[in-house]
């Protein structure tokens, strides 16, 4: 079926008005922080009190990723996948801080708020959950569009590569610029050891493998407007990283962030799919019904 002939929406699990309200509220938290924080990030004038507010945004984005999965998989599967992603990512980070494996030797600072068991900030597992759930939905859409089929193994590989690419932009912004964590054995890429990116790919791949039975979906139309939502969620992190990179002059990292973002947008859905998404967004905006957008997907 040609892209422009596909329906603007696809069947999803039924959700109530409370679902839409929750997603809208969490998205509002993230957008509010970005609206006020982006100029401060570019000018490198972020006050210390706002650093901890950033952890609230990471938690909100992780919850949004879980709720987007509800619409696509149902409450039970989404809850199990969310719990697995949250718990396993915390375990991976705790092991990483304690042993230096598989990312290299590093420690978290207090800039993201309290650290669970004195090691890992509460917001970090939620950040991983955004990448795992939002990244898998994005990777699934890419593979489906390129191959015409849902291929779980290929999707996991694409998702792990996407997560690693995102970290290439994230590390200079979060570690070097904002000081959320410190590398004890600096490496060649903005002080980040090469081992970190190998560890990111491996961790993401393991998380996808464990969560796969709960997140994969049966065959569906490729390029639907619903495919755009997880990309928008990941895009919030990209905008945050890019603002810091431009403010600090991290041009190589900024180029990587832009390249990955453009490639992801191009591969996730065809222009017709993004056009449908924007039309629906505009239609809801004209009706002044912000919750309506979520019900459309």
Notes on the protein architecture:
By secondary structure, the protein is mainly alpha-helical. 71% of the residues lie in helices and 3% in strands. The chain has a two-stranded antiparallel sheet. Strands 2-3 form a two-stranded antiparallel ribbon. A hairpin with a 3-residue loop joins β2 and β3. α1 (17-42) packs parallel to α7 and α4 (123-147) crosses α5 (152-177). Mean pLDDT is 83; it is low at 1-11.
The total of helices stands at 10
Largest sheet: 2 strands, antiparallel
The SSE order reads: HHHEEEHHEHHHHH
Uncertain ranges: 1-11
The class by helix and strand makeup works out as mainly alpha
How are strands sequenced across the largest beta sheet? 1-4
| Annotation, overall tally of beta strands | 4
- Fraction in beta strands: under 5%
In short:
The relative contact order is 0.15. The radius of gyration is 19 Å and the shape is globular.
Key terms for this structure?
two-stranded antiparallel sheet; single chain; 71% helix; disordered N terminus; 297 residues; mainly alpha; 10 helices; globular
Q: Could you give the topology of this structure?
A:
Layout: H1 17-42, H2 48-73, H3 75-99, E1 106-108, E2 115-116, E3 120-121, H4 123-147, H5 152-177, E4 181-183, H6 194-215, H7 228-248, H8 251-268, H9 271-287, H10 292-296
Antiparallel strand pairs: 1-4, 2-3
């Amino acid at each position: 079926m040609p892209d422009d002939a596909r329906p603007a929406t696809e069947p999803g699990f039924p959700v109530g008005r409370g679902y839409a309200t929750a997603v809208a509220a969490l998205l509002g938290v993230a957008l509010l922080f970005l609206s006020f924080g982006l100029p401060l990030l570019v000018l490198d004038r972020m006050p210390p009190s706002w650093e901890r507010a950033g952890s609230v945004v990471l938690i909100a984005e992780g919850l949004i990723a879980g709720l987007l999965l509800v619409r696509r998989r149902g409450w039970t599967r989404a809850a199990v996948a969310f719990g697995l992603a949250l718990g396993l990512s915390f375990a991976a980070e705790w092991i990483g801080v304690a042993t230096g494996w598989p990312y290299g030797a590093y420690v978290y600072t207090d800039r993201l708020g309290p650290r669970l068991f004195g090691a890992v900030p509460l917001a970090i597992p939620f950040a991983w959950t955004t990448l795992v759930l939002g990244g898998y939905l994005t990777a699934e859409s890419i593979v489906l569009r390129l191959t015409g089929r849902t291929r779980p193994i290929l999707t996991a590989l694409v998702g792990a590569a996407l997560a690693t690419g995102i970290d290439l932009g994230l590390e200079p912004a979060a570690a070097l610029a904002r000081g959320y964590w410190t590398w004890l054995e600096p490496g060649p890429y903005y002080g980040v050891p090469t081992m970190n990116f190998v560890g990111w790919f491996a961790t993401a791949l393991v998380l996808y493998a464990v969560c796969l039975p709960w997140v994969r979906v049966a065959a569906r139309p490729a390029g639907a407007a619903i495919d755009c939502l997880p990309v928008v969620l990941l895009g919030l992190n990209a905008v945050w990283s890019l603002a810091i990179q431009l403010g600090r002059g991290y041009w190589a990292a900024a180029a990587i962030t832009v390249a990955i973002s453009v490639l992801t947008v191009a591969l996730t859905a065809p222009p017709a799919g993004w056009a449908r998404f924007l039309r629906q967004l505009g239609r809801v905006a004209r009706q002044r019904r912000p919750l309506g957008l979520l019900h459309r997907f």
